[in-house]
Recover the amino acids of this structure.
C-alpha cells in the first residue's frame, strides 16, 4: 500500500511540474518586439506601456513591430494588436477585439497629419463559433486630435482611437 502512495505522489509531482503557467494579472500587458535578429518579450503594467516601448532599443532605422494587448474592458473575450513603426514613427496600428457574437478589426494607417481608419465588424452565426455570418465595414479619416476629416457614412468609433492614443506611443525615442 505504501508503494501505491509513493507512486501516486510521484505522478502528482511530475504532473504539477509539467503544467504550463500563464500570467493572469489583469493589470499587465504583453509586448513582443519583433526586430531581426532578436525577439524579446516583456510584460509590463498598462500604465507604463508608453514608457516601456520608448525605452526599448529602436536605434535602427527599419520596421519595428510591437504586439500588445490592452487590459481595459474593451471587449468580452479579449483583444490583441500590433503597432508598426518605420524610422521611429508609427505607420500602422491594427487591433482586434473578440466578443461572444463576433470580432472587430480596427486598422489605422498613419500618413502625414491624417489617419485612415478601417473598422471591420464580423458577426458570428453562432456564439463563439468563429464562423462569420456577416461583415460591416466602415472607413473614415481623422487628424491626430480625433477630428473627422471624411466618413463613409457609417457610425464611427473614436473612443477606441483615444484609448489607443493614450496607450501606444506614436513616436519612438
Amino acid at each position: 500500500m505504501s508503494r501505491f502512495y509513493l507512486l501516486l505522489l510521484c505522478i502528482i509531482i511530475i504532473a504539477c511540474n509539467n503544467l504550463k503557467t500563464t500570467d493572469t494579472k489583469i493589470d499587465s500587458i504583453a509586448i513582443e518586439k519583433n526586430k531581426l535578429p532578436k525577439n524579446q518579450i516583456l510584460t509590463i503594467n498598462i500604465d507604463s506601456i508608453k514608457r516601456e516601448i520608448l525605452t526599448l532599443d529602436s536605434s535602427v532605422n527599419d520596421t519595428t513591430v510591437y504586439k500588445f494587448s490592452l487590459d481595459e474592458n474593451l471587449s468580452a473575450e479579449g483583444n490583441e494588436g500590433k503597432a508598426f513603426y518605420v524610422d521611429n514613427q508609427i505607420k500602422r496600428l491594427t487591433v482586434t477585439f473578440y466578443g461572444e457574437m463576433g470580432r472587430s478589426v480596427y486598422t489605422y494607417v498613419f500618413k502625414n497629419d491624417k489617419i485612415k481608419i478601417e473598422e471591420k465588424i464580423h458577426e458570428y452565426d453562432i456564439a463563439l463559433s468563429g464562423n462569420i455570418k456577416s461583415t460591416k465595414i466602415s472607413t473614415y479619416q481623422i487628424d491626430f486630435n480625433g477630428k473627422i476629416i471624411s466618413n463613409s457614412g457609417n457610425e464611427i468609433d473614436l473612443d477606441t482611437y483615444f484609448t489607443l492614443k493614450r496607450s501606444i506611443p506614436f513616436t519612438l525615442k
Observations:
- The beta strands are 28-35, 38-45, 63-68, 79-86, 89-98, 102-111, 114-124, 132-143, 148-151.
- The chain has one domain: 28-167.
- Residues 2-18 form the longest helix (17 residues).
